[in-house]
């Protein structure tokens, strides 16, 4: 096992990519704090980890709520005595062109990704600095590195998370903290399934064309990235043994956006 007894906290881990990573961390021997908007959704992931023989804790946490993030991190430390790995994964999407976008929708998307990543980072770093180090991970996107139409708040927030990741790599180094960002292409999760009909409507094309000619157009093989692909990369980055890997973005996308 690659993460034996490491203490990890993952936001937005009640379903989708966060859940897949939480389960993978559990299989690799980590103690996994599963944070999501409700205890019920977090609890489903916890039950799956425990059923597989792992150790997990459900935490109700809206990542835009400063008090909730502080309390959640404190709960992890009170339960297991520290925090080694924190992954800012919670995310939402909004499909609309910039010129009709409400300020409220802009703020909602930017806040979940960027305020959420900041609040988790601040709370986690205080623990990691006190305990001699740790690993910060961010769930970016290919949209941390390039843009698509109809997703301005998401693209802007994901670029911002890349900047935060790099800043944390610089500040964290002297405290033994590494910081990296995972940048997936399209993965079939509720977040993506919801936007297929939305994009079809906005672009005036079929859902099949959204998948083939928008989402997977720039992959080398027309394939979706899988939950397992992203989880394997997240395990690898958490387990990497030295600070040689820090401040980096890792694109997992079937070749969409080669860097
Ligand atoms: P998802 O919708 O399946 O899961 C997102 C999770 O985040 C849900 O459990 C939801 O309850 C939680 N969440 C939403 N707002 C929250 C908040 N304010 N506080 C706490 N939790 C909150 O989505 P997913 O596809 O698994 O996405 C996870 C992350 O991966 C996101 O950051 C997303 O931007 C990123 N990502 C996804 C894809 C993809 O193709 N699915 C690609 C690149 C990046």
Topology (elements, then pairings):
Blueprint: E1 7-11, H1 16-27, E2 31-36, H2 39-51, E3 55-60, H3 66-80, E4 85-88, H4 103-130, E5 134-139, H5 152-172, E6 177-184, H6 190-203, H7 207-215, H8 227-239, E7 248-252
Parallel strand pairs: 1-2, 1-4, 2-3, 4-5, 5-6, 6-7
Helix pairs in contact: 1-2, 1-8, 3-4, 4-5, 6-7
The protein binds nicotinamide-adenine-dinucleotide (NAD).
Describe the model:
The protein has 259 residues and is an alpha/beta fold. The chain has a single domain, classed as 3-Layer(aba) Sandwich (Rossmann fold), CATH 3.40.50. Helix content is 48%, strand content 15%. It is built from 8 helices and 7 strands, in the order βαβαβαβαβαβαααβ. Strands 3-2-1-4-5-6-7 form a 7-stranded parallel sheet, sandwiched between helices. Nicotinamide-adenine-dinucleotide is lined by residues 11-12, 14-18, 36-37, 41, 61-64, 89-92, 112, 139, 141, 184, 186-187, 189-192.
Q: Biggest sheet: strands side by side, in what order?
A: 3-2-1-4-5-6-7
Q: What is the makeup of the main sheet?
A: 7 strands, parallel
What's the number of domains? 1
The count of strands amounts to: 7
Shape category: globular
Pfam families: adh_short
Protein name: 3-hydroxybutyrate dehydrogenase
Organism: Marinobacter lutaoensis
Family: Belongs to the short-chain dehydrogenases/reductases (SDR) family.
Summarize the structure.
This protein is of the alpha/beta class. It has helices spanning 16-27, 39-51, 66-80, 103-130, 152-172, 190-203, 207-215, 227-239, and strands spanning 7-11, 31-36, 55-60, 85-88, 134-139, 177-184, 248-252.
């Amino acid at each position: 096992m690659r993460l034996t007894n490491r203490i990890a906290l993952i936001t937005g881990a009640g379903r989708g990519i966060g859940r897949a990573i939480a389960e993978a961390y559990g299989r690799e021997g980590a103690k996994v704090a599963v944070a999501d908007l409700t205890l019920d959704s977090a609890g489903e992931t916890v039950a799956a980890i425990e059923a597989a023989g792992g150790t997990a804790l459900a935490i109700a946490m809206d990542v835009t709520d400063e008090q909730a993030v502080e309390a959640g991190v404190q709960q992890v430390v009170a339960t297991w005595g520290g925090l080694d790995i924190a992954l800012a994964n919670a995310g939402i999407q909004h499909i609309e062109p910039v010129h009709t976008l409400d300020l409220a929708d802009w703020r909602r998307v930017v806040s979940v990704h960027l305020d959420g990543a900041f609040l988790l980072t601040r709370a986690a770093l205080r623990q990691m600095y006190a305990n001699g180090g740790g690993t910060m991970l961010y769930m970016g996107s290919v949209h941390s590195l390039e843009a698509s139409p109809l997703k301005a708040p998401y693209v802007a927030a994901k670029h911002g998370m890349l900047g935060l990741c790099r800043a944390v790599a610089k500040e964290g180094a002297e405290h033994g903290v590494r910081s990296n960002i995972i940048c997936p292409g399209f993965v079939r999760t509720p977040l993506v399934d919801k936007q297929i009909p939305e994009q079809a409507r906005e672009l005036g094309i079929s859902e099949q064309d959204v998948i083939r000619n928008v989402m997977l157009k720039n992959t080398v093989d027309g394939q979706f990235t899988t939950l397992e692909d992203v989880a394997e990369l997240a395990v690898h980055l958490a387990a990497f043994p030295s600070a040689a890997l820090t401040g980096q973005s890792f694109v997992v996308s079937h070749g969409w956006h080669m860097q």
